[in-house]
Amino acid sequence: MLAGYETEQAALTASTETLRAEVEELKSKVANVQSFLKLAEKYGEVTELTAEIARTFIEKIIVHEGVFENANRRSKRTQEVHIFLSYIGEFNPTE
What we know:
This protein has two helices and five strands; from the N terminus they run H-H-E-E-E-E-E. By secondary structure, the chain is α+β, with helices and mostly antiparallel strands. The protein has one domain (2-91).
């Protein structure tokens, strides 16, 4: 009975540490979102993308090489582009 209790206690301790790490990660994400929102409030309603606004809001842009549907270059070409915003990470407009 004691061994079962010790095993359960070890599992609960490990679970507690995992949950604490997740809480800290969420707190960090909330702080990042709040920082991003402060930037958004500073600039108000953006009607034009200026160089200053792009530098402020965009951390990086990754453009991958274009891929053709078929081997010939007359087929449809697709190209992946990843945009990372300051403080909040990758922007995914489909989510």
